[in-house]
Amino acid sequence: MNMILPAAILEIFQYQFMQHAFEAGTIVAVIAGIVGYFVVLRRSSFAAHALSHIGFAGAAGAVLLGVNPVFGLLLFTGVGGTGIAILGPKAANRDVQIGTVLAFMLGLGVLFISLYTGYATEAYSILFGEILGISLSDVLLTLVVAVALLVAVAFVYRPLLFASLDENVAEAKGMPMLAIGITFMLLVAVATSIAVQVVGVLLIFALMVTPAAIAQRVTKKPVRAIIVSVAVALFSTWLGLFISFYQPYPVSFFITTIVFVLYLLVRFVYPRISRAKNQVGTGNPDIHPVTIDQD
């Protein structure tokens, strides 16, 4: 029995397409776990969802022009994210601006798809992901973009965290809220663009939101929450890829199912275990307040 798992792993990595899938999946899971934490903290899940659909329009345009869809994703999500940040600087009234930008971009996506005369598999891969079809060049592009994104996150981590915890206090202290908002939306745009390769436009929540939501129910420390978020995203992606190798179903289905099951466990089982151990403090036993720490 102990030899079955190592043998299965060795069998998977004999195939180059699986190697590329694990490489790209690992990169995307790390980025999605980190950026997703701020998405949940800033209550911007709708923004992330909107950007994924805006990216669909860009990818469809890129496919129409015969260009790598990732470039279209990056362009449209970047422009859309900047527009959302400028039109809706306050979280309280941002939904209307997001919906407005989203509607226009989706209209463009419909136009591009209607003009495209190639195989429908291109559009299908944009909607649901095609991680098993990722090439080495795609992996390298994803890696370069991810490294740049990590550097950007490290640079803006402290001001972004402070502004995310209480934007009114941050604004009162003179922090450049518009610049921070635009930077955040650009980070989400880039993370969304590369995550689409794994789970597609329609299932982006699986890696961008749910792991971070799980992490916030487990710990109140920002750094620890980010680590948990990344760990959940990695575990779900790796296990989803492993299962999909032996089952004739989409990888994105397994990844989303695993993440959802983990969320249910943390949502309903974890609080009971915590209460049993007398480790729950005051307030909501499920979601801990976030504080800035030095860990």
Write a compact overview of the structure shown.
This protein is mostly helical and 295 residues long. It contains 13 helices and no strands.
Description:
- Helices cover 77% and strands 0% of the residues.
- The model has no long low-confidence stretch (mean pLDDT 79).
- It has helices at residues 4-12, 16-41, 45-65, 69-87, 94-115, 121-128, 136-165, 167-172, 177-199, 205-208, 210-218, 222-246, 251-276.
- It is globular, with a radius of gyration of 19 Å.
- The chain has 13 helices and no strands.
- The protein is mostly helical and 295 residues long.
- Helix 2 (16-41) runs parallel beside helix 7 (136-165).
- It has a single domain (21-276), classed as Orthogonal Bundle (ABC transporter involved in vitamin B12 uptake, BtuC), CATH 1.10.3470.
pLDDT under 50 segments (min length 5)? none
Q: What is the CATH topology classification name?
A: ABC transporter involved in vitamin B12 uptake, BtuC
Order of helices and strands: HHHHHHHHHHHHH
Query: Strand portion, in percent?
Result: under 5%
| Strand segment tally | 0
* Text of the CATH class: Mainly Alpha
Please name the CATH architecture.
Orthogonal Bundle
Distance between the termini: 40 Å
Please tell me what the overall shape is: globular
Content-based structural category: mainly alpha
**Continuous helix count:** 13
Summed up, the domain count is 1
The CATH homologous superfamily is termed ABC transporter involved in vitamin B12 uptake, BtuC
